[in-house]
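Re: beginner question about structure tokens

> Can someone show what the tokenized structure looks like for a real chain? I only ever see the sequence side.

Sure, here's an example I had lying around. Input first:
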Amino acid sequence: MASLAFAFVPERLISMNPEVKSMFGAHMVYLQDKMVFFLCDILKKPQHKGVWVCVSPENFDAALKLFSASVRESNKNSKGRKWIFIAAAADDFEEQVNFACDLVLRKNTLIGRTPV
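And the corresponding structure tokens:
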């Protein structure tokens, strides 16, 4: 099992009882039935190193506007689902990830997606 990258993320959410599952050599953070963050530090894919914020397609544009310009990069997977990517190399990485955690702690409905 891969070691937990960016362990401060589930630690920040401890009051919400997050569940962390290993997935694709990285880790998905769940709150109840929703995926909220994908924590990725895969040596073979350094361009993916960072925290991926799970959002539903209908909330993507509104959620993306909440973050700084450094996290404007997003990715669409093969099923057309978009993710907000906070690159570990960004100067404001921890600030932006902590902001995303704060949104989750405040139960902002823009963050999180039920897996299909």
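Each token stands for a local structural state, so reading them left to right follows the chain. The chain has a mean pLDDT of 88.
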